[in-house]
# Entry
Amino acid sequence: DNEKKEEIMPLIKTQYNNVNKKKNDETMITTSFTNTIGISLIYLDITKHLNQIVGTAAKCEMV
# Structure
């Protein structure tokens, strides 16, 4: 009986983990979709700042 338990437990754990993973994945997809929009905006903002910094640095070097 103990041997059977040892065989079944990992299977149950795997099943359980798969179900949880699926739930997490669905949540993550929704979250990441929302985050992607937010991150894109932040990224655009950062790129704008970087371009200003690089532009300023280039101007300084030219002088």
Notes: The chain has one domain: 1-62. The chain is about 95% helix and 0% strand. Residues 1-62 form one domain.
